[in-house]
């Protein structure tokens, strides 16, 4: 018979396996997001250094939890409980940082200028992405049509004044700025509101993610403390039994 309740042990291992898989997914996602780290920094987004720490830390701590439960060693469970306590605090800190960063990004989008956007559009992949958004949403530029320099692309062309399915104002037309090349009639609405809608959604998901993990870390801490108690009680009972036999 094991030192820890079988159902509790299996449940503990199961959730640690789930988080280990999630850690692997986060490592992969962070590696993919590294491609866009420059663009994220340009609009006030956070760096990816902490994302690497978080992803690798989740994977490592989950593996530690699996080993601690399987070995039923009090020391390993204590180390895991310590990580859960620290992790809970870190998740709360990350959640607060993410909330502050969200406000900074919102302010950056509200005060966007073409001079701010033009360096981002020097990246060919970002230019292609923005043109695809312009065609789908019926908008032009991020801050304004001047984001494209002297030559406005065909994706900004507006053939008629209408409303887009993305909201009021999208699909309306206006004349191109004086001295610019490109279509004579372009979309009046910029793409900043549409882009920020998805950026803000990502921040909301991240906030739920961090605060949700803070609660999960608290539960992990409580369960690991319960398992430590069971291990100590089993070891204490075994020691008393041996003492009685010796007597």
UniProtKB/TrEMBL annotation:
Disulfide bonds join 139-173, 140-156. The chain crosses the membrane at residues 7-29, 49-67, 79-100, 205-228. The keyword Transmembrane helix applies. Gene3D superfamilies: Tetraspanin (1.10.1450.10). GO terms for biological process: regulation of vascular endothelial growth factor signaling pathway. It is found in: Membrane. One of its GO terms (cellular component) is plasma membrane. It holds the Pfam family Tetraspanin. The keyword Translocase does not apply. Keywords: Disulfide bond, Membrane, Transmembrane, Transmembrane helix. It comes from the Eukaryota. InterPro entries: Tetraspanin/Peripherin, Tetraspanin_animals, Tetraspanin_EC2_sf. It is a multi-pass membrane protein. SUPFAM superfamilies: Tetraspanin. PANTHER family: CD63 MOLECULE, TETRASPANIN. Belongs to the tetraspanin (TM4SF) family. This is Tetraspanin. It comes from Amphiprion percula (Orange clownfish).
